[in-house]
Write a structure and sequence with these properties.
The complex is a heterodimer of chains A (278) and B (615). With 278 residues, chain A is of the alpha+beta class. Chain A has 11 helices and 8 strands. In chain B, helix 7 crosses helix 8. Classes of the chains: A alpha+beta (278), B alpha/beta (615).
């Protein structure tokens, strides 16, 4: 199905191509009735490759609509039509965390807020019975002071249909928890691990395992202990190493039980550091 | 054990051989037991925060209050986080932290008394004597010792030909991935050097293992013993006890050593009687040895850096469950490597199923891989189980993956993504749990850019690529390999060839080996047939020219012997047909008017890699 600028999708008129991502094409659109600007994401299903994807998409979409959290992207509307599915989302204009990190680590109150919002969103997602499965800096948008989590479970649904497949494979390798390489089931603890990697990267400014070679990345996630964050960035609060170590345990059962207890420790780290200074 | 051992146990309580000592911490608050936990880590953090290993929530406890560090078998040290003096904690002297009292207990758990252990060994002997086959003897031995010594993980190691790297023949029990490899390597190394049983009472304090400290350790104690016969190591029994569970003692080490001596004697007896029996069935041996390729890593012969790197990679990838792509010219041992990965992986007890995509005509591939139901197409007279289903819980090896048609590639991609298959002619989806290892000798990336191979499938497959070095890149392995094959054919053909002479070695070294190890093997095998002297001479070597065939047959010097000349002509002719077909299989088949499987056999025999035969 070919789409063009100016086409009408239901009540939404496509105005501008915003980007082609690993999970589909995103357009800027205006809702006819209200004039509200929205983002419309178009996902193509190749039924030859992933039959049943549409059904699963529908199931997850229904769950997603249940989530109302300020740090989870708001789904406004959706449709499946002619092998394509459309998701209408709130329009976000901020940079991704990946873009932001090119300017170095996040520091001070920004870092505290960022982590708490991320873990709060993760808690809400888990409470709705969904795993994110692909928590990476490219899927986090910094909308001013507000962090927004995107693309849960959807990346897995569309069956990697883009030109940048190799890159997206590499990227997801860099954030994949050890259990993924052991053929074990992914659980909420897998998202906890990914959140650990993201928080490491946000605090230090680099990935805990900066290898680019796929097989080295696999071995690092499976066997290597990540470096101590405080040895790479001395400005970080004490105990952040213990915090990250707990989130990045190789054994899923040894990680934080849930996002809430992780968030509790996260905000403690910075309170403790403040009172220490004060 | 059915008999009553009550009184025996009491009488022998002081001489118990196997003790399981574990340190436990009991947490009391206002004299009430809150919980009990084993101290399994080298260091246990204590504090209010969830990131601590032992979480104590209460007034007066700091976020990280301190660390508990085991010192000896019955003492733990508490090191306060504020830098205060360390406090010793023993079973008699609990630790007070605000409202909490932490009491240490050394749990003595007895798995067997010596009487029970001896009973087990006595039970084992008749079963061992009944076994004739070495591998069965080894397996029975390991099974019994594993249980008798209450090991967490146990393995039987064998040495490759000519004292090569020890490799695991069998293993028992659970072992966390990759964790304690270095310990077993150190222990095995010690046995190879001293030829005596080894005890590591506590891996955390053993000086010879100090290097292993940098890796997480899930092992407490190790005993291991060689099976010795006339100073030759037949194999090694290796037993590990679980972390913080059980300490092995010198007594147990000695007992293990004596049991292994008995077993080694039996292996020797079984072997000599088997060799007698073999006198009677000498004919046909040659053919059988060709097939008897053992799956273990021991078959990968060579000590060159390229080979060592390869073996390290195999270990690495075997510890994971990722899809693996094996790249290498024909004859480099792609199937051998895949089998080694399978046998080192957690899937080792499930089937290894190999499919050669080139040997299958396109129209059959689908039903061969995915199976079909009765009536799916004319000729489908019954249900047929596909290779994917055969390999359930195991490993599926797809050789020559580049030969798959685009249609089949789509189906394969779907299986990899969805982990379900559909038999041909059936709508039902059947879940399969298969680790895929794909292999190719052609330039798959080139096929991707030309559109003959789906890029998304390629990326799926190449998560962990392993490249096998061609023989010409590791000529330093030639002498070892030649020796290996000479030993092999000496054994199979009851000959006593002593090696190759200097002139022959020069010829072999100069050869480019387009057919790699397989070609080398065929050349040595053929030389055995022709050579009558003790050492193989150049006259017995029949090497196919690696240069392109001459322009006309009159230019060619055919070998004198009729059989050799026939072979040489056949190779020339096939090369010719391949070249005219641009290296593609289908047109070559039409030219030669032979079957696909026949052509494939010939290519293997002559060591021709169709991918290298192009205009």
């Amino acid at each position: 199905m070919d789409l063009h600028i100016g086409d009408l999708l239901g009540d939404y008129r496509l105005e501008k191509l915003l980007g082609r991502g690993a999970t589909g094409i995103v357009y800027l659109a205006t809702q006819g009735a209200t004039g509200q600007k929205v983002a419309v994401k178009v996902l193509h299903f190749d039924e030859k490759v992933c039959s049943g994807a549409a059904t699963r998409f529908e199931r997850e979409r229904a769950l997603l609509s249940e989530i109302h959290h300020p740090n989870v992207v708001r789904i406004l509307d959706w449709a499946i039509e002619g092998g394509c599915s459309f998701i209408v989302m709130e329009l976000l204009t901020g940079p991704t965390l990946r873009e932001r990190l090119t300017r170095g680590p996040i520091a001070g109150p920004d870092l505290v807020r960022f982590g708490s919002q991320l873990l709060g969103a993760l808690g809400a997602i888990h409470k709705a019975g969904i795993l994110h499965r692909d928590l990476t800096p490219s899927n986090l948008i910094l909308e001013g002071d507000r962090l927004v989590v995107l693309d849960f479970g959807l990346a897995k649904l569309v069956g990697e249909q883009t030109i940048s497949q190799f890159r997206s494979l590499q990227l997801s390798l860099a954030y994949a928890p050890p259990e993924r390489y052991q053929g074990l089931k992914q659980t909420a603890a897998s998202d906890i691990y990914q959140a650990g990697v993201v928080l490491f990267e946000a605090s230090v400014g680099r990935h805990p395992f900066p290898e680019t070679d796929a097989s080295k990345l696999v071995t690092s996630h499976l066997f290597r202990t990540p470096p101590r964050a405080t040895s790479l960035n001395a400005a970080l609060p004490p105990f952040i190493d213990e915090f990250l170590a707990k989130a990045l345990k190789k054994n899923p059962l040894e990680r934080y039980r849930d996002a809430a207890s992780m968030e509790d420790d996260w905000s403690f780290l910075f309170r403790a550091a403040d009172s220490h200074r004060g | 054990m059915s008999r009553s051992t009550g009184t025996v146990c009491g009488a022998m309580a002081d001489h118990r051989l196997i003790t399981m000592a574990a340190l436990w911490i009991h947490v009391f608050r206002h004299q009430r037991l809150e919980r009990s936990e084993p101290l399994t880590r080298a260091e246990t953090t204590v504090g209010t925060r969830a990131f601590c290993d032992l979480v104590l929530k209460g007034p007066g406890i700091e976020p990280i209050h301190g660390r508990l560090v085991p010192r000896t078998a019955d003492e733990v040290e508490f090191r306060p986080a504020d830098g205060g003096p360390a406090v010793s904690v023993t079973p008699r002297c609990p630790l007070q932290l605000s409202d909490f009292s932490l009491a240490l207990e050394v749990r003595q758990e007895f798995s067997s008394t010596p009487r029970q252990l001896l009973d087990r060994v006595l039970e084992l002997l008749p079963e061992l004597w009944a076994k004739e086959d070495e591998k069965q003897i080894f397996r029975t031995l390991l099974d019994t010792l594993f249980v008798a010594f209450a090991a967490e993980w146990g393995a039987f190691f064998t040495l490759g030909e000519k004292g090569g790297e020890p490799s695991i023949l069998y293993s028992r029990g659970e072992r966390s991935i990759g964790v304690s490899d270095r310990i077993s390597k150190t222990v095995i190394g010690q046995i190879l050097a001293d030829r005596r049983p080894v005890l590591v009472a506590d891996v955390r304090t053993d000086p010879s293992l100090s290097q292993a400290h940098s890796i997480p350790v899930n092992v407490r104690s190790v005993i291991a013993s060689p099976l010795l016969r006339e100073d030759r190591i037949e194999g090694i029994v290796y037993l590990e006890s679980a972390e913080s569970r059980q300490f092995y003692s010198e007594d147990e080490r000695d007992l293990l050593g004596r049991i292994c001596n008995l077993a080694a004697d039996h292996v020797a007896r079984a072997r000599s009687s088997r060799e007698l029996a073999r006198e009677n069935e000498r004919l046909g041996e040659l053919h059988r040895t060709q097939v008897a390729g053992d799956q273990s890593l021991g078959q990968l012969v060579g000590t060159s850096p390229a080979m060592r790197a390869l073996i390290a990679q195999i270990h690495q990838v075997a510890a994971t469950d990722v899809t693996t792509l094996v790249l290498g010219e024909s004859g480099t041992g792609k199937e051998l490597v895949s089998k080694a990965i399978h046998h080192l992986s957690a899937r080792r007890d499930a089937p290894f199923v190999a499919v050669n995509c080139m040997a299958l005509p396109d129209e059959l591939v689908e039903s061969e891989l995915f199976g079909h139901v009765k009536g799916a197409f004319s000729g489908a007279t019954s249900d047929h189980l596909g290779r994917f289903e055969m390999a359930h819980r195991g490993t599926l090896f797809l050789d020559e993956i580049g030969e798959l048609s685009l249609r089949v590639q789509v189906k394969l991609l779907r299986v990899l993504q969805e982990r379900v298959i559909q038999r041909v002619g059936e709508a039902k989806e059947r879940p399969v749990d298969v680790r895929l290892i794909a292999a190719t000798n052609s330039n798959l990336e080139g096929q991707v850019s030309s559109g003959a191979f789906r890029d998304d499938l390629f990326f799926r497959l190449s998560v962990f690529p392993i490249r096998l070095p061609p023989l010409r890149e590791r000529v330093e392995d030639l002498p070892v390999l030649i020796e290996h094959f000479i030993q092999m054919f000496n054994h199979a053909l009851r000959r006593s060839v002593r090696g190759v002479d200097d002139r022959a070695m020069a010829v072999l070294t100069a050869h480019l080996w387009p057919g790699n190890v397989r070609e080398l093997r065929n050349v040595i095998e053929a030389a055995f047939v022709r050579e009558t002297k003790e050492r193989l001479s150049p006259e017995s070597l029949f090497l196919f020219s690696t240069r392109k065939p001459a322009a006309s047959s009159t230019d060619t010097e055919w070998p004198e012997g009729l059989e050799e000349a026939k072979l040489a002509f056949e190779k020339r002719h096939i090369l010719d047909a391949l070249e005219k077909s641009g290296g593609r299989i289908q047109p070559t088949l039409q030219r030669l008017r032979i079957s696909r499987s026949n052509l494939y056999k010939k290519l293997a025999l002559f060591g021709i890699d169709p991918a290298t035969v192009k205009h």
